[in-house]
Sequence to fold (576 residues):
Amino acid sequence: MLVLGIETSCDETAVGVVEDRLTLRANVIASQTELHAPFGGVVPEVAARAHLDQLLPTIDTALVQGGVHLSDIDAIAVTHGPGLVGALLVGVSAAKGLALAHDVPLLGVNHLRAHVEVAQLEFGDLDPPLVALVVSGGHTSIVVMDADGTFRQLGSTIDDAAGEAFDKIARFIGLPFPGGPEIDKLARDGDPTAFDFPRAMLHDGTYDLSLSGLKTAVIRDLRRMEAEGVEPDLADVAASFQEAIVDVQLIKTLRAAADEGLDQVVLAGGVAANSRLRARFTAECESNGQRLIVPSIPLCTDNGAMVAASGANLLAAGVTADVDLDVDPSLALTG
Amino acid sequence: MLVLSLETSTARTSVALVDQDRVLASASLGRPREHGRFLAPAIRFCLEQAAVDVDRIHGVAVGLGPGLFTGLRVGIATAQTFAAARHLPTVGLCGLDVLAFRVRYTRRPICTTIDARRGELFWAFYRSSPGGVQREAEPTVGRAEELAAEIEAHGDDVLIVGDGTLSYRDVLAETGAQLAGREAAWPDAVDLAELALPRFVREETVRPERLRPIYLRQADVRIGWEQRGRLRGGVPNEAAG
Ligand SMILES: [Zn+2]
Fold:
């Protein structure tokens, strides 16, 4: 069974093809990073326009890469939320056009779920229960995939998503968009203990996170130093800021795993490409005897293969969508 | 020659299946912001009710706007993938032209309008010509007062159509022009198909990936932090252009 997956929820126009749920056949991404860079963040209307410009060529490229024809595809999967409404609508409309043209099932995929399920393309079928940290520019959530494959959200950021915090601090210290990879790079030469930035809500008994106080503290310290005429070591700032973000996510995620008695941890989403986050999770899970599952970076950032993989699971479970499938910008991760 | 026609650039969504001069099936919805949910079921409805197999469709016509951003992208994205998947040619048309085509038998100069939201509208002027209407200049976006001044410059026998006549009735009526009613308020997929048919016949078509919306406004470049916040709940708002 071949499933084509379409992803347009944010700023990547992406199409993937997956065969028999576990085999990656194609994964093509038309990135819009350069379009949004001048604005220092994702501009929804710019994203939606670019999705429409790039989607059909991206579908074509994915079919070529996968060595398949559209008429071979058994079902069309598409992200229908969460995400930017105008961006989502382009992908969902395109998916419906394909599904109608070849009379194949339409599969409505939850973007957050897909970030977790994509791991099956590299690690084989996931063996839940497990805990997952889904972290990107738009979301920072700690979720549990139960033994029956259903998802439960334990907690999420109450303000900024991690990727958003990276972007904002990067912009403040003059680094280009997207900020995550830039801070990651800069932080390698810095001392993560140079600044003692706050780790909010660490001991509040919930699995929620708050990153906006951290962001404010970094900006306040930079302004204070500027007023005092002190030249800050930006590598130290980046490393300390990154360490605080990593700490909060690591501690909360592993506490969730401990509380739920789970020994498998999945790292998912674009920010899972952060080298410090990967290293700290790797070390900590190893010392705890937990299995850490982290997809390779092309499958962590938004991509079409994850949509195809998640869609293939839906198809196998007989859960198809009707062509009146709606987009849901704030689609919840449940069930 | 069988044409599937999609028009989603205004508050009204419509679909038609037209065989030469015969409308085999059509469907429309007047609820705004429902383009994404309504369009595909409406296409399926038309195909099923007309008992037409997708193999028999010769081409896909689609409205390119100007109009509501999200709506017109719904139509174009659907038209593009449907046509590409069936290896069909496409024709994209301006919604203002479709509105003028609707009232092509008038002898008056025609002004077509589409509500652009945010206190503005899109418009274009037409003169009747043999076999249809001829647009005088490129479509424009502006405030109703600016349009009223242009209408007055055209003389007092202008016929105004489109939903601008509903949103800006008072300002436009003051010009002394005649305002068409609701029956010509929104571009319709049946008119779109009729206007597109000769182009399919003459093979003045484009490949689906060449279809592009008519954007008369630059993208609103406010950064999406607030909209990203919507990932955690909130209500989207719709822009036009
Ligand atoms: Zn994502």
Summary: The mean pLDDT of chain A is 95. Chain A touches chain B through 53 residues (CB under 8 Å). Residues A 111, 115, 136, 269-270, 302 surround zinc ion (CB under 6 Å).
